[in-house]
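Retro notes - structure team

What went well: the batch runner handled both jobs without manual restarts.
What didn't: labels got mixed up in the shared folder, which is why I'm recording both outputs here explicitly, each with its sequence directly above its tokens.

Job 1
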Amino acid sequence: MGKTITRVDLTGVVSDQVSLSRAEAADLVEQVLAEVSAALASGETVKLSGFGVLTVRHKNERVGRNPKTGVVVPIEPRRSLTFSASPLLITRINGGTPKPRARRLRKEPLLAQSATE
């Protein structure tokens, strides 16, 4: 099993990559996580391109059953968090190299087309 990445690990990477002090990097990591948490708490979807999408789902009240005793227990309505990995992340996880995205060609402006006609 692999290592677990912690906030301290993220702070270290940010500090090294962006040339910030550890305290500034820790503050930056905390701000990003707080912003993502606040967006999810308010019911928004968070999309991180190349990584995935975090979505809040609303689950209605339902009836559950205790498997040991068979007693019926109501399960309260709640919100749950789901994560859908991007195709790019899935490719990386499976050891492949992601293909570069095709770039869209810009269409020429209408004025340039009419001038050549």
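Job 2
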Amino acid sequence: MGERYGEGDASYRTAGGLDGLRRLVDDFYRFLDELPEAAELRALHPESLEASRDKLTCFLSGWLGGPRLFAEKYGSIAIPSFHARWPIDGHQAEAWLTCMARAIASQDYAPEFADYLLAQLRVPAQRIVQASAARHGC
């Protein structure tokens, strides 16, 4: 049996490395711009998504077992505290996950990896909502 997702850099490699992550993130932000259910979440982002794209790509690289680019460029990150300045509720988290699900479906991923990746991304999304509720009383 070969490597499994989540072990070493298997997920990073399966996602296509840095180029694959850039494609995923570009598609994610395209859906964030296009989907009506994401309009409220989009409004929390700056008009230019260039920095957001880079930060998400760098984060996903390290999170999936590849180079820890976020730490190298931006310093350490604790996901809930990074998002603490914005109150994020369950609706916004679901909008984020919907955009990500569409972006994942746009990639040439095996169905098993697509399911795995979306399931893994639900964890930090839920943590952000919980931390936001504790901080902002949402």
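One thing worth noting from job 2: Helices lie at 10-14, 17-34, 39-42, 50-63, 69-74, 79-82, 90-105, 111-136.
We'll revisit the folder naming next retro.
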